[in-house]
Amino acid sequence: CLSFPVFLSSFPPSSPSFPSPSRYSIPVAATKNKVRGAQGQVPIVQNMTVTEGGIANLTCRVEHNDNTSLQWSNPAQQTLFFGDKKALRDNRIELVRATSQELTISISEVTLADEGMYTCSLFTMPVKTAKAFLTVLGVPKKPEINGLTKPVLEGDQITLTCVTSGSKPAADVRWFKNEKEIKGAKEVNASGKTFTVKSSLQLLVNRHDDGVAYTCRVDHVSLTATHEETTQVLEVHYAPYVEIKHSIPATLEGQYLKLECVPHGNPSPDPVLWTKDGGELPDLDRVIVEGRELTFMSLNKTDNGTYRCEATNHLGTSHAEYKLVVKDAPTTSSPSTTSPSPTLQDNTGPLDSKDLNSAVTGNRDPNALPGPPDHALIGGIVAVVVFATLCLIIVLGRYLARHKGTYLTNEAKGADDAPDADTAIINADGNHAHAEEKKEYFI
Ligand SMILES: *[C@@H]1O[C@H](CO)[C@@H](O)[C@H](O)[C@H]1NC(C)=O
Ligand SMILES: *[C@@H]1O[C@H](CO)[C@@H](O)[C@H](O)[C@H]1NC(C)=O
Ligand SMILES: *[C@@H]1O[C@H](CO)[C@@H](O)[C@H](O)[C@H]1NC(C)=O
Ligand SMILES: *[C@@H]1O[C@H](CO)[C@@H](O)[C@H](O)[C@H]1NC(C)=O
Ligand SMILES: *[C@@H]1O[C@H](CO)[C@@H](O)[C@H](O)[C@H]1NC(C)=O
Ligand SMILES: *[C@@H]1O[C@H](CO)[C@@H](O)[C@H](O)[C@H]1NC(C)=O
């Protein structure tokens, strides 16, 4: 580092080859360090904010200058440029414009170390200076998500952490679960001039987290109109649960019936195993098994029994049962004499039996469906009559109340007409009997 000797003599103004007046790179503070000296011969500068790696243009202006030299020096008080003469050997620092009214230099590939107070000096007697603070923004690194094992087992508690370093000022770190923001625990550590920001998320993993994307997003003032983000998709392994779907609710002899075993689980439990009454399935001419499906082309009473479907993955085994009771084909249909209907028993996995029950289709008792219609009809009529009566009573009650109110007001009217309190009481008393009469009438 060599410091340029400061001459108090004037340097010749630089060539007028620059076409347009220069502008500040990123003027942050609009206010100018403007101190009016004699003849307005004072340097004027502006504070600046530049993103790491960018270019900072340092401009110093003098409104009225008599060819007195301008100088820029850095926070370490080293002279950078004296007029158009370069003083510090640093390839990143270049002259943009040097006239008697302006000295503009540029610092490219700005680093955090360039931050500080820069001074522009005007070598009048005495020397006048103006100070500009150069703020350098540290760009946050792409966030990293840690703490995720693949796959995760259902019921495991995991802590996802998202870390981004290098930001200045400290970056904002946010978590999103499938686009929806969720709150994490933030922690900020300073390391040198920059900050390391960490946000952690504690999750109790369940099967619904399978395939869910967790995104960590970093917003920062240096990332204008954009942001950095990293996404991890959870893969959750869970023990199977099984449901059986059937094609018809009631089972009569000769009917076609298809049972479908639907196993849920990750890894997917495949294939499924069908059994009847704890043993082998009957002949293939009675029942057709195709993967998850069990089909009876024509039901027969000999098909009675409990059919069970079993599914297994490395986390466990689960099964569902279907109790088949084949009834006589209806000769004369009489709904009141139905024999026990097919019921479905679900033996779900250990974890989520509630979900299953709601997911099973056709898990209704067919006997409940054809309810006696006469009772419902009568009930409806009674309800309507009761409601109408209630309405009538309310309307009548309001009507009576209103009329009673009117008469009481009339009674008090005597007071309005009276010239004094005594007369008012007399008037009121006089009307009292009349009002009483009316009240009795309506009550
Ligand atoms: C700095 O000044 C030069 C010359 O006027 C200009 O080309 C450049 O765009 C400026 N840089 C910034 C970051 O404003
Ligand atoms: C500045 O210097 C130039 C060239 O040396 C000269 O032509 C000009 O008159 C001077 N201006 C003032 C105000 O002294
Ligand atoms: C420039 O920045 C410095 C340091 O941050 C501050 O003290 C000063 O007030 C600022 N000047 C203006 C004009 O904003
Ligand atoms: C921050 O600092 C604390 C204490 O020095 C340390 O325990 C923690 O791990 C640090 N966090 C990060 C994100 O560096
Ligand atoms: C049911 O099976 C028995 C014995 O296999 C047979 O005799 C009968 O005809 C079958 N009934 C129907 C409705 O298919
Ligand atoms: C099947 O169940 C029905 C209804 O309980 C019964 O009437 C019939 O005898 C049963 N048939 C066989 C073969 O078990």
From TrEMBL:
Region (Disordered) residue spans: 329-368
Keyword Protein biosynthesis assigned: no
PROSITE patterns assigned: IG_LIKE, IG_MHC
Record field: compositional bias (Polar residues): 344-361
Membrane topology: Single-pass type I membrane protein
Domain Ig-like: 43-122, 143-232, 240-325
CDD domains on file: IgV_1_Necl-3 (cd07701)
Main location: membrane
Keywords attached to this entry: Disulfide bond, Immunoglobulin domain, Membrane, Repeat, Signal, Transmembrane, Transmembrane helix
Protein name, per record: Cell adhesion molecule 2-like
Organism the protein comes from: Carassius auratus (Goldfish)
